[in-house]
Amino acid sequence: MKPVIILFFVLIISSCATIREIPEPFVVDLNSPQIPLGEIDLQLDRFLGGLRRETVNLIYFPREDAVALQFRHEMMTYHQFWSREGRALFIRALEQYNEDFTARTLENQNARRSRQIYGTAEGFLTWRGHRFGVQARANMTLGLGYVFRDRSPYFTIHQGRAEFIDPATSSNRMESSPITLHFTRAQAAELASFFRQDILNELSIQNREIPAPPAITDIERDDFWAEPSEPSVTDTERDEY
User: Which of 63, 73, 81, 149 stands 20 to 30 A from 29 (CA)?
Assistant: First the structure.
């Protein structure tokens, strides 16, 4: 066989291998089997400024191995889906944030940079305004980091902008604006406990509700400016820094 022909087949095989390596987008079917996990609290931005406390439902979708945060914001209902890789990143990011918090190296200067300083994951989002409205869905990025609000730091999930194009008619487009979810350390630790893969694996096998994590006394912020002390899961409205 001539060298030119051999090279031609090598290039074809390499191209096919490259195509096969393209990862499938992370998507979730809302009609898939679901297992309720429980509820957590976090903070969302108020329309007129400041933060408001919000109770979020957690749902596990074992077929897609995805965990959804279901919440309402500005008249819309969202399902923010986390893949296995995204959940692992969240746990690592929170560990790094706690280390930076204890070392007092958090900086209250560049919020755009700090809100995804611990990395980004691919997420999947569904949203709609009312039960009879169009169910929009799209992939988006989930940035992990922190921001300061009223001189107190919050661990954050920054839900990036998402755009849905209706497959029935491309002229029907819906856009979801960016949303930042704010957590005290105790609240973030509670979510991390639901993200543990060993717990989710057991839950999927037994098809039962996950046990509620230990009760945590926690309100709306972490006090960052107090004298350094040993970290505790019991706090008040903010994390003392």
Answer: 73
Q: Which residue in this structure is represented by tokens 């980091």?
A: 145
d(CA 138, CA 126): 7
Half-sphere exposure of residue 187: CA atoms within 13 angstroms, side-chain side:
27
Q: For residue 8, with 0-12 CB atoms within 10 Å meaning exposed, 13-18 middle and 19 or more buried, which class applies? A: exposed
Residues 186-197 pLDDT 10s: 999 999 999 999
110-162 pLDDT tens trace = 888 999 999 999 999 999 987 777 899 999 999 999 999 989 999 999 999 99
**Cα–Cα distances in angstroms (integers) from residue 67 to residues 60, 80, 217, in the given order:** 5, 8, 24
Regarding pTM above 0.85, the answer is no
Q: Which of 27, 227, 14, 221 is nearest to 123 (CA)?
A: 27
